[in-house]
Structure formats: structure tokens, C-alpha cells
């Protein structure tokens, strides 16, 4: 069988959630059926990371979209790559990439699909990108798929759940870790964690305020793991630190900043708290579940599609009051974290591994191209 040659376009070259997904798919892509080259629109650490996977990379420096000269220059370069490398399919990673790759593919009469990592709304970029011809769109969750299908004109939209690389997120074993002693956390204390970019839509402020209320009565600690990425909301962390200072025990809220490796930190936590009201999927959720951790998440969007509340995690209505209630119930031993964590790991192993994600990705590409 002839290999399908993919040209994958990524607007950024640093690791974010969508980029981590791309890397995991490349790791598990069937080398007997696919050959992938990756184009980045800027230099960054991800270029070398992808090269280490054995993929050829290209960096085409793209200025802001308003720079028309740069825009058409990049499209011309893409067209040259499509021809010279014998590309069969262009895969545009995220909407911005499709603004370039979709046009280049159209001009070269090649199929193009794009990856919608978020929940699209009526933002001009979502509307514009959806008008560029595409063979199909891949979405990580049913909620993302639902909103993408509302945009016109409608290209075929296929579900492609995300997955966790279980080698990077083995079942957590906190024994022997010196994390708690170094940070002055007693072994018997319950440790909650917020993990993710520090942006307002992810609502870490709600998590910290809920923690402040719980800490008045219980010996608990909170780890805030994350920072600002891609230059977004760089001042927000200071707001969160101010909220933390409102606590009776501000020393129990530990800001750890952005971390490249989160598994060793999560291994010493007990519960991961998620607060987004309309999460497109929730990689933080599945990664935490893979480590055997209990996750508290809002029962909407992606988390509702992942968690069976009371079996492998806990869902709440998004309010601070109900979050406080659940956190206190956990501290008071009303839930078995061991059982929830064991079931969480089983859920990831059966439904949300990186291998299954890549396998679905391959199937979706063949489905879209064969139906063209």
C-alpha cells in the first residue's frame, strides 16, 4: 500500500495543548501507512522535538495576517512544498493554519482537513476559516463538533477524541518523592491542584476562592500549576495571587508556574480541580485520570463526555458553592479517592490513550479522502 504523504501546518512552535496533541499523534502514527512533514510558521522548541520523532520540518516565517505580502509569500512557499514533496493531504493544525493551508491546497487541487481544537463561536476567525473549502474538520469532542457544524458552509465534521501517552503519565506513585517535605506540606494533608494556562475562561479564580473557604476548616493545600502562554493575559497571575492572599492560610497556596513535566507533581496531589464552563475536551482531565487522580470538573462540554460522575471522577454545576461542598466532602472522607482514581485510570486505558487517538485520526483521514 502506498503511503499517504501528509503536510501538517502548525502556526506556533511552542508546546500548548493543541501542539501536545499533534506531537502525540505523530509519535503513534502508523509509519507503514503515513509519512508526515511539518511546517511551522515560526521558530521554537517544537521544531527540534518534531525532528527527533523522525519527521522532516520546514519553518516558513509568517507575519501577522494583516501583512498581505507575507500572507501570499507563505501560500506560495506552501504550494512549492506540496508539489516538490508529492504531498497527498494537507492537515492544518488549528484554524489559523487553514487560512494558509486551505488556500494553498485549493490552488494545488489537493484535499485539506483542519483541526478544530476549541469550541467555535461567532468570532470572525471561526467564521472566516469555515468559509475556506475543506475536505473535513476534526474535533476533539461532541460539544466542539456540535458548534462547528453550526458554522456555514458546512464541511464534514468528524469526532476525534484526544488521548494520553501512558508512558508519560504512568500510574502515579508518590512514594519516595521529596516534594511535600520541600514545600512544607504534611503527609496527612489533602492536596488539591489546578493545572492549566492561567486564563480567565479557565476560571482558576473560582478554584482559589473555593479553596480559601475550605481551608478555614480543614488542613488542605493548593498547587497552582501553570502560567501565561503565547503572551495571553500576562497580568492575570497577579490577580490570582491577590485572591490567594485573602485566604486565612495564604502559605498553603503554592504557585509553581508553567511546568514542562507535570506528572511528577500531580503524583503527590490528591485531587485535580477543573473549572472551565465550556471546555472543548480537557487534556488536563485525562492526564490526571491516567495518573489515578480524582478530578472535579464542571459537568458540561468535554468533561461531561469523559467523566462518569461518582465512578471515575466528580462533576459539579460550575458554582463556587457546589465546588466547596465537594472539596469538603473529599476532605471529610465521604468519597474513596483510591476507588475513584483506580476507575479513572481504567477509563483512560479503555477510551483515551494516545494510540487510540492516532488510530482514530488515521481512520478519519482515510474516511474523508476516500469520500471526496
Automatic annotation (TrEMBL):
Pfam families on file: Glyco_transf_4 (PF13439), Glycos_transf_1 (PF00534)
Glycosyl transferase family domain residues: 179-346
Domain Glycosyltransferase subfamily 4-like N-terminal: 16-165
Entries under InterPro entries matching the protein: Glyco_trans_1 (IPR001296), Glyco_trans_4-like_N (IPR028098), Glycosyltransferase_grp1 (IPR050194)
Keyword DNA-binding: no
Keyword entries, A-Z: Glycosyltransferase, Transferase
Molecular functions per Gene Ontology: glycosyltransferase activity
SUPFAM superfamilies: UDP-Glycosyltransferase/glycogen phosphorylase
Domain of life: Bacteria
Protein EC: 2.4.-.-
Name of the featured protein: Glycosyltransferase family 4 protein
Amino acid at each position: 500500500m502506498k503511503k499517504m504523504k501528509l503536510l501538517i501546518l502548525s502556526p506556533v512552535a511552542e508546546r500548548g495543548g493543541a501542539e501536545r496533541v499533534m506531537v502525540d499523534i505523530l509519535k503513534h502514527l502508523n509509519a507503514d501507512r503515513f509519512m508526515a512533514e511539518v511546517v511551522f510558521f515560526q521558530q521554537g522548541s517544537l521544531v527540534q522535538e518534531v525532528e527527533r520523532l523522525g519527521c522532516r520540518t520546514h519553518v516558513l516565517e509568517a507575519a501577522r495576517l494583516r501583512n498581505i505580502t507575507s500572507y501570499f509569500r507563505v501560500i506560495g512557499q506552501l504550494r512549492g512544498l506540496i508539489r516538490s514533496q508529492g504531498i497527498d493531504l494537507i492537515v492544518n493544525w488549528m484554524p489559523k493554519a487553514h487560512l494558509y493551508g486551505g488556500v494553498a491546497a485549493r490552488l494545488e487541487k489537493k484535499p485539506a482537513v483542519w483541526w478544530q481544537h476549541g469550541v467555535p463561536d461567532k468570532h470572525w476567525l471561526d467564521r472566516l476559516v469555515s468559509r475556506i473549502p475543506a475536505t473535513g474538520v476534526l474535533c476533539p469532542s461532541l460539544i466542539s463538533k456540535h458548534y462547528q457544524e453550526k458554522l456555514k458552509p458546512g464541511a464534514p465534521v468528524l469526532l476525534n477524541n484526544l488521548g494520553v501517552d501512558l508512558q508519560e503519565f504512568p500510574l502515579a506513585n508518590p512514594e519516595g518523592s521529596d516534594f511535600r517535605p520541600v514545600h512544607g506540606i504534611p503527609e496527612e494533608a489533602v492536596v488539591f491542584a489546578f493545572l492549566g494556562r492561567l486564563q480567565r475562561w479557565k476560571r482558576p479564580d473560582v478554584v482559589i476562592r473555593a479553596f480559601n473557604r475550605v481551608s478555614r476548616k480543614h488542613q488542605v493545600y493548593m498547587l497552582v500549576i501553570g502560567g501565561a502562554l503565547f503572551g495571553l493575559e500576562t497580568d492575570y497571575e497577579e490577580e490570582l495571587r491577590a485572591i490567594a492572599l485573602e485566604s486565612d492560610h495564604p502559605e498553603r497556596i503554592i504557585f509553581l508556574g508553567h511546568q514542562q513535566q507535570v506528572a511528577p507533581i500531580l503524583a503527590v496531589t490528591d485531587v485535580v480541580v477543573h473549572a472551565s464552563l465550556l471546555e472543548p475536551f480537557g487534556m488536563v482531565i485525562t492526564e490526571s485520570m491516567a495518573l489515578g487522580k480524582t478530578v472535579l470538573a464542571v459537568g458540561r462540554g468535554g468533561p461531561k463526555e469523559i467523566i462518569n460522575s461518582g465512578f471515575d471522577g466528580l462533576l459539579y454545576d460550575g458554582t463556587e458553592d457546589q465546588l466547596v461542598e465537594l472539596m469538603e466532602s473529599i476532605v471529610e472522607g465521604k468519597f474513596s479517592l483510591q476507588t475513584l482514581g483506580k476507575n479513572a485510570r481504567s477509563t483512560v486505558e479503555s477510551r483515551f490513550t494516545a494510540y487510540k487517538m492516532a488510530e482514530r485520526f488515521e481512520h478519519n483521514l482515510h474516511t474523508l479522502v476516500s469520500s471526496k
